[in-house]
Amino acid sequence: MFENTFADELAKRLGSSVEVATDNNLIEGILSTVTPNLVLVIEVTSGYGDNVKMYVSVDAINFVRFPVAA
């Protein structure tokens, strides 16, 4: 019911650090892309290797948090 409004609000925060919680995962990274159905979070690693792209269905999201940088 609120998926479209939720996706619209998330789209305003592209490029922000984000924590996305689902039933099984807590995904931390940069909010990269938002569509009405999917959210893309890029998990940035500080070591060697590639960054991980995590696609999350908007329906599967329990909450989103935008942590404040210390």
Count of individual helical segments: 1
Strand content: 35-45%
Q: List the strand order in the largest sheet.
A: 4-3-2-1-5
Q: Which term fits the overall shape?
A: globular
> For the CA atoms, what is the radius of gyration?
12 Å
N- and C-termini, Cα separation: 35 Å
Largest sheet features: 5 strands, antiparallel
The amount of helix comes to 10-25%
Please count the beta strands (DSSP E, at least 2 residues each). Answer: 5
Q: Describe it for me?
A:
This is DUF2642 domain-containing protein. It comes from Virgibacillus alimentarius. The protein has 70 residues and is mostly beta strands. It is 13% helix and 41% strand. The chain is built from one helix and five strands. The protein has a five-stranded antiparallel β-sheet. The model has no long low-confidence stretch (mean pLDDT 90).
Task: For the structure shown, list the relevant keywords.
70 residues, mainly beta, five-stranded antiparallel β-sheet, 1 helix, 5 strands, 13% helix
SSE layout:
Layout: H1 3-11, E1 17-21, E2 26-34, E3 38-43, E4 52-57, E5 63-65
Antiparallel strand pairs: 1-2, 1-5, 2-3, 3-4
Question: How do you describe this structure in short?
Answer:
The protein has 70 residues and is mainly beta. 13% of the residues lie in helices and 41% in strands.
